From TrEMBL, chain A:
Membrane-related topology note: Multi-pass membrane protein
Presence of the UniProt keyword Ion transport in the record: yes
Organism of provenance: Cyclobacterium plantarum
TM stretches of this protein: 6-24, 36-59, 71-93, 119-138, 158-177, 189-213, 233-251, 272-297, 317-341, 362-379, 385-406, 413-434, 440-460
Subcellular location as annotated: Cell membrane
Catalytic reaction annotation: L-proline(in) + Na(+)(in) = L-proline(out) + Na(+)(out)
Listed Gene3D superfamilies: Sodium/glucose cotransporter
Database matches in InterPro entries: Na/Glc_symporter_sf (IPR038377), Na/solute_symporter (IPR001734), Sodium:Solute_Symporter (IPR050277)
Protein name per UniProt: Sodium:solute symporter family protein
Alphabetical UniProt keywords: Cell membrane, Ion transport, Membrane, Sodium, Sodium transport, Symport, Transmembrane, Transmembrane helix, Transport
Family, as annotated: Belongs to the sodium:solute symporter (SSF) (TC 2.A.21) family.
Automatic annotation (TrEMBL), chain B:
TM region positions: 7-28, 40-60
Species for this entry: Cyclobacterium plantarum
Keywords assigned: Membrane, Transmembrane, Transmembrane helix
Protein name stated in the entry: DUF3311 domain-containing protein
Amino acid sequence: MIFWVWVFGLIYAGLLVFASLRSYKKNRSSEEFMMAGSNIGLTLGVLTFAAALFSTFTFLGMPDFFRINGVAAWIFLAVSDGAMVFLLLWFGYHIRMKVKGMEFRGVAGLISRCYENRLAGYVFFLSSFLFLIPYVGIQIQGIAIFMDAAFPGSFPAWGWSAGIVLIMLVYSEIGGLKAIIFSDAIQGLLLLGVIWIIGWACLSHFGGIGPMFDKIGTVQEDLLSSPGPQGLLTPQFLFASLIAILMIPVTQPQFTTRIVVMKSMKTMQLMAVSLGAFAILVILPTIFIGMYGADLYSEYGRDEFFANAFLYDQPDAVAALAIIGLIAAGLSTTNAQIFALGSELRGLLRGNENSIMTKTKIGIFVFSVIAFFFSIIVIDQLVLLARVSFAGTGIMGPMIILGILSNRKVSPAIIYLSLTGLIIFLLSLGGWIPDMYFDIRLDLILFITLGIAAVISHLTGTKRQLIRPKTNE
Amino acid sequence: MEKKRLYWRICCVAAIILSIITFTPLVIPQGVSKPELGGVPYSLWTSFVITVLLVILTYIGTRVHPGMQNEEEDL
């Protein structure tokens, strides 16, 4: 296997170096560095959005989620993604119209301008920081666990994590957002190819889709229906997850940025459709891998399942591809998230452009270091931590949608309510307050309450006076 | 333009209805895996169909979205 890891690893590294050098320009402006010149075409747009969205969370987390919770996991992610691409069409149009003719400097900066209140930007930045960093951390950890299984005893897990963070930093420093988008394109294709090769091998183990579910029915029948053996996938959990995932393009800055930097409205819209098709193609084989795990490794822990299904049971070349595919999947998402946090920080800074860029780059470095420490200490299921990340940033959804859509001068109350919602959600995550009230999940209560507050704010807002620009007669 | 607006609204309503019925016993009856389709459990094939329909609706949405015309006019 080592031979194949070297072969695929060198090809992958070569493509990354090529992409970063192609993106590098000596005297590039900060706009080019942070926003890729806002000129991304359809293919790159689809692949970069997909690579940022489908990460180790999909590659490793979803097979494990299917293995433990059964087929309703499809609703958790695929149906939610299907609805999300439709929302992307609607929200993408509005945010692009909003930023038309102005320099887009991240969602935090935009939302501060919409509310004419800098607190809105700070609250948004806080939620992004709090919920993206642990998510980045657990993805780095996922790669480290996998590498440890592939090369036991060669490096400690933190050594792998440090290496990944270092590659991420060097790469984004050389090429900026454009390099990240190019590398996403490579990584998106690699992820799709590898997950299908492994998924197909797992499906062949059963001899087809029908025999696969027949077998699983005899092993653990609960896996074939909702809520699954653990009782997790209830309608309420799935519905709250839908809202959290729907809010991804609105509240996770790495996606909002990608919507804005698309070349045209038409390209953005076609990107949404293609992304929906990509989501189906990527999630489908994770069912096969999950069912394979349920059949052979139902008693095993997460790490043993990953090691067996992705490495030890596969031919050497496929196992090597899995390693490279996983690095690609993790690197593209973590890169996108850390860079987006830097971009958001830039939108909040004031002063000379050179000093802002220096502070932004220092910010990206600091975020990476914090994510590295998280990767050492965080222990959780990939999918559930990802869901917490989506829900945590999703709390900001009503505030952002109101700010972008409303043509009225609205009260800043929604900003304070969103901050309160964020604190309440954090308290429940810390176990200081319950996460269920009257049998309703707290995240669902927060989404509904803030949604209603946003509607009331809009209805009670005062209409803005349109001032016609003076013209020379 | 008015027709486009109407079609767009129909798409939005259809997407909302599809999303909501996913969380009803129509798609996820608790603890029930039959009737199967080609050996695929009930909740999986129905939700797969819903996902595909949502993507198709998104495609139709790109054709009828009234904003596209606005952008062309702006240009």
